[in-house]
Every structure is written in structure tokens, then in C-alpha cells.
Amino acid sequence: MAVSKKVLVSWDIPQIGIDMLEGAGLATTVWKGEAPLSQSELIALAQEHDALLSQSTDKLDEAFFEACGHLEVISQFSVGYDNINLAKAKACGIPFGNAPGAMTEATADIAFGLMIATSRKFFYMHKKIVAGEWKIQKPQAHLGLDLRGKTLGIFGLGKIGSEMARLCKAAYGMEIIYTNRSEAPSIYEKDLQAKKVSFETLLEQSDVVSVHAGLNTETRGIFDAKAFAQMKSTAIFINAARGGIHNETDLIHALENGVIWGAGLDVTNPEPMQAENKLLSMETVCVLPHIGSATIGARNNMARMSAENIVSFYEKGVLPYLVE
User: Fold this and answer.
1) Which residues of 70-109 are buried (b: 16+ CB within 10 A; e: fewer)?
2) Catalytic hit among 66, 200, 271, 315
3) CA angle centred on 261, ends 110 and 265, rounded to 5°
4) Is 290 considered catalytic here?
5) Residue 14 half-sphere exposure toward CB, CA atoms < 13 A
6) Which pTM was predicted?
């Protein structure tokens, strides 16, 4: 590069990504604050740079692009990108990339773990010990659900959803059904013996419904009171995708009234969840603070892929992980 381009990394990422940017001769600024940049702070810093390596917490909306339409490329340290106005980015001629597949196994592990923890009330029973309430064990107290041979319904059979299905089939011999906006790769149906069904059938037949779809206009709030009412009263709802896909008020009502049996959440609506939220005290609910990608390997992969987008753009004019 004749002139060194300036890249803003909007929050501290694993060093492998920074090293890639700097090794390519890019002048790199990394925000290392304890909290993410506010939108006004992000805009002010982005205006001084040529490229942005963003986070899913960044608000890249119309206002952002009106102020930062000069950016040459944006790459995001995540798989999801519901925080960006992609149409506005395209209108400004700014290519946008992400890090697909970087966190597949890590996120599927979280969904799988939440399913087990919810079915056996792990979090609630742990709290009983902490509260000094482990005194006696009654034969019919705090019983959980069996998972072997049950039906798993995957909402979004992509990379993460198929990995969750593989784990459930291997560990518990679960039957796999799924619903997608489009056809899933045939290898998923072959290897998993997965059957595509309608959304309504997925709700009615699944013992566990696990959400692995992106957040968009079609999926936002799709798991609402109407959806929960169609599920089995013994069903477990798992969401390790985006909190906006479920209506939290409706979920609380469904759990309180026995419409469904339990829920395991790695994402909430809104985030972060407040400590007073009713879900945190329910016996058949397990909640985690959005840690699906929080392994060393996954985060390193996310840093590498998001940095690779920017390096490749300046060296070859293309993004290897371009979002169309």
C-alpha cells in the first residue's frame, strides 16, 4: 500500500486480529475502554479512519452512515449483523464482511448445555445449595425431564443449528425436525435424517425447540404468546441466537402458566437482563449472559476472520467473508 490506511477497531479483540492488521501495514487504532463506544464516540473516531472493524454492539444505522459514508470497508467481529443497516452501507458503496462459522461449535455447545441444564433444573438446584436449603431429598421433588428419544425442533438449520442437532442425535438419539426460510443443505437432511416441517408443525411436535436463526423482520418476535401456545406443555425453549427473536413478556407468561415447561437462554430481550427479571428465579429456567462465542478458539477465529476481510480488501480488493 502506497499510503497506510487507518483502521479503527471499535473494541479490544484478540491480539491475532490486531497483529494481522498491523502486519499488513495498516495503522490500527483499538478502543480499549471498559464499555463499548457510544454511537457519537464511534462516529467521531470513525471519521478519522478509512476502515472499521466493528462489534455487534455498535449501532451502524442510517445516522452512522450519513456521518461516516467515507469509510472504504467495514468488517464485523461476529457472525450476526442485525446491528447494521446493510442497505445504507451498500448505498454508500461500503462493502461489509463478518466472521461466519467462527463460533459454530462454541455456540452449539452452549445450546446443548442449556438444554441439559434446563431439563434437570441445574441452575435452580445450585441456588438451593447456596441458600442453605439442601436438607433432605424427597422422592418426587424437583424432578426433571428425560431427553433420550425425544424430538428436537431446530428453528434455523444452518451451521450452528446443524451442529446442535448432531450433538442431540449422537448423545440422546433425538429425532430432528426443522424449519428454514430456504432449503437446508441436503447433507444436513442426509446425515441428521432431519425432516423439514412448517413452523406450526415444529411447534406442535417438538419436545425441545432450539433457535439458531438470524434476527430480521421475519424472525423478530416470532416466538410470542401464539407460538408458545402451540408448543407442548412439556416443551423446552432454547434460544442461543438473538434475544429479539422471542417476546420475553410472553415467554414469562407461558412459563408461569404452564404453557411450556422450561427455557434455556443465552440471549435475552432486552440485553443485558436486569437482576430482578422473573426468569432468573424460575425453577425450570437457565439464563446465561450471551456467552455463546466465549471460548479462546472461537474468539481467536472471529478476530482472524474479521481482520482478514480488511487486509484482503486492501491487498486484493475483495472480502473473503463478504455479506451480500
Assistant:
1) ebbbbbbbbbbbebbbeebbeeeebbbbbbeebbbbbbbb
2) 271
3) 25
4) yes
5) 18
6) 0.93
Helix (H, G, I), strand (E, B) or coil at 102: coil
Say if residue 1's pLDDT is above 70: no
Look up residue 25 and give its three cell numbers: 501495514
* Structural domains of the chain in order of their starting residue, each with its CATH number: 6-102+296-316 (3.40.50.720), 104-287 (3.40.50.720)
User: Which class for 198: exposed (0-12), middle (13-18), buried (19 or more C-beta within 10 A)?
Assistant: exposed
d(CA 262, CA 190) in angstroms, rounded, equals 30
Clarify whether 271 is annotated catalytic. yes
Catalytic residue among 120, 212, 290, 299, which? 290
DSSP string, 281-311: G-TTEEE--S-TT-SHHHHHHHHHHHHHHHH
Q: Report the Cα–Cα distance between both ends of the chain, in Å, rounded.
A: 26
User: Which one is catalytic: 120, 242, 246, 299?
Assistant: 242
Instruction: Render pLDDT for 179-220 as a digit per residue (tens, 0 to 9).
Output: 998 777 777 888 899 999 999 999 999 999 999 999 999 999
Work out the percent of the chain whose per-residue pLDDT is above 70. 99
- Does the pLDDT value for residue 54 go beyond 70? yes
C-alpha cell belonging to residue 69: 459514508
Angle between helices 296-316 and 104-119 (to 10 degrees): 150
